[in-house]
């Protein structure tokens, strides 16, 4: 873990602070010595593939799972010894909107307000505030079944903010949304952070982490394998990348040999995309040399060019594979249950 995280347990500096946490299911560790430090008032991305431990970490920090080892504090409270205080200071939104389609947007928020023991009048006032904050006033009286995907997610975010939590856990909040819906959720998240909320965002979408997070932790097999700013992570890949896409997968080996010779390093290979790439220093010379040698060796490249590294390149280098599409599997019922358990 980075020195800045290891040397401080100041709740005003870190809204979430975990050291060597473990969670085991049978003989398998979902979290295996996981470290995390989330600065207060920021969006911190938790990036990893299916089964990496992202959701397990969030559920443990939200006190929905008991850790088997290590220590974690959230908003200044210990998740193992003081779970009630943690629950009073957090919000949680899962992968799918936990709202009732039969009710209107306003009725949903008032219902959650009562679940959080606000009472009828206070629940109604808070619902009105949140409808305005999340730009849902015009749709407040409509049944949620009439909402777009982005509107449902915004309503779900609003429900998580009933008690104005210090820390909000967002577990893959834009799963299944179209680009417009994702943009709406991103705007809502930025507004929350501007208002002082700390957000821990788990995602498999690299562009989402890049656009929202000021810092990103990459998790794989239950451990943090990298922690830096988005630009810092990209810099670990190197400068410009030369990239070759071949027409036939059988030509990948030759293309990789050519790129390796010119770049002076072992290139990353994506068999499915029929693509190889590697960092280079002299971009123009590298492009010329690769194009010439591919031609001389009879390889007809579908595409060849130079580009800046992306988080996808970082992820591929760190884990040996690219991120996968977000999984389907959580249900509205289980997500609603999680939200109510946190409220209890």
From TrEMBL:
<dbReference type="GO" id="GO:1900753">
    <property type="term" value="P:doxorubicin transport"/>
</dbReference>
<feature type="domain" description="ABC transporter">
    <location>
        <begin position="16"/>
        <end position="246"/>
    </location>
</feature>
<keyword id="KW-0046">Antibiotic resistance</keyword>
<dbReference type="Pfam" id="PF00005">
    <property type="entry name" value="ABC_tran"/>
</dbReference>
<dbReference type="InterPro" id="IPR005894">
    <property type="entry name" value="DrrA"/>
</dbReference>
<comment type="similarity">
    <text>Belongs to the ABC transporter superfamily. Drug exporter-1 (DrugE1) (TC 3.A.1.105) family.</text>
</comment>
<keyword id="KW-0067">ATP-binding</keyword>
<dbReference type="InterPro" id="IPR050763">
    <property type="entry name" value="ABC_transporter_ATP-binding"/>
</dbReference>
<keyword id="KW-1003">Cell membrane</keyword>
<keyword id="KW-0472">Membrane</keyword>
<dbReference type="GO" id="GO:0005524">
    <property type="term" value="F:ATP binding"/>
</dbReference>
<keyword id="KW-0547">Nucleotide-binding</keyword>
<dbReference type="InterPro" id="IPR003439">
    <property type="entry name" value="ABC_transporter-like_ATP-bd"/>
</dbReference>
<dbReference type="InterPro" id="IPR003593">
    <property type="entry name" value="AAA+_ATPase"/>
</dbReference>
<dbReference type="InterPro" id="IPR027417">
    <property type="entry name" value="P-loop_NTPase"/>
</dbReference>
<dbReference type="GO" id="GO:0016887">
    <property type="term" value="F:ATP hydrolysis activity"/>
</dbReference>
<dbReference type="InterPro" id="IPR017871">
    <property type="entry name" value="ABC_transporter-like_CS"/>
</dbReference>
<keyword id="KW-0813">Transport</keyword>
<dbReference type="GO" id="GO:0046677">
    <property type="term" value="P:response to antibiotic"/>
</dbReference>
<keyword id="KW-1278">Translocase</keyword>
<protein>
    <submittedName>
        <fullName>Daunorubicin/doxorubicin resistance ABC transporter ATP-binding protein DrrA</fullName>
    </submittedName>
</protein>
<dbReference type="GO" id="GO:0043215">
    <property type="term" value="P:daunorubicin transport"/>
</dbReference>
<dbReference type="GO" id="GO:0005886">
    <property type="term" value="C:plasma membrane"/>
</dbReference>
């Amino acid at each position: 873990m980075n020195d800045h995280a290891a040397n401080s347990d100041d709740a005003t500096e870190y809204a979430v602070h975990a050291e060597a946490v473990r969670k085991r299911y049978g003989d398998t560790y979902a979290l295996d010595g996981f470290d995390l430090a989330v600065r207060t008032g920021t969006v911190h991305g938790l990036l990893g593939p299916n089964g990496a431990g992202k959701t397990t970490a969030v559920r443990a920090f939200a006190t929905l799972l008991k850790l088997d080892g290590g220590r974690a504090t959230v908003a200044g409270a210990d998740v193992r010894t003081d779970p009630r205080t943690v629950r009073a200071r957090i919000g949680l939104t899962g992968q799918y909107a936990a709202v009732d389609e039969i009710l209107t947007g306003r009725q949903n928020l008032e219902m959650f307000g009562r679940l959080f023991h606000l009472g009828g009048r206070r629940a109604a006032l808070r619902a009105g505030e949140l409808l305005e904050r999340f730009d849902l006033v015009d749709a407040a009286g409509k049944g949620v079944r009439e909402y777009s995907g982005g509107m449902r997610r915004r309503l779900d975010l609003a429900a998580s903010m009933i008690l104005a939590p210090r820390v909000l856990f967002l577990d893959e909040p834009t799963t299944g949304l179209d680009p417009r819906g994702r943009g709406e959720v991103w705007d809502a998240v930025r507004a929350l952070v501007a208002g002082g909320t700390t957000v821990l965002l788990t995602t498999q979408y690299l562009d989402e982490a890049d656009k929202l997070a000021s810092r990103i932790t990459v998790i794989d097999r239950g451990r943090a394998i990298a922690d830096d700013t988005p630009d810092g992570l990209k810099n670990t890949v190197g400068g410009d990348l030369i990239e070759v896409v071949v027409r036939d997968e059988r030509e990948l080996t030759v293309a990789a040999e050519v790129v390796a010779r010119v770049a002076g390093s072992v290139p990353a290979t994506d068999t499915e995309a029929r693509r190889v790439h590697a960092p280079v220093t002299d971009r123009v010379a590298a492009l010329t040399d690769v194009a010439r040698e591919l031609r001389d060796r009879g390889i007809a490249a579908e595409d060849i060019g130079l580009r800046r590294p992306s988080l996808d390149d970082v992820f591929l280098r760190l884990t040996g594979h690219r991120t996968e599409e977000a999984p389907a599997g959580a249900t509205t019922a289980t997500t609603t249950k999680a939200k109510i358990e946190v409220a209890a």
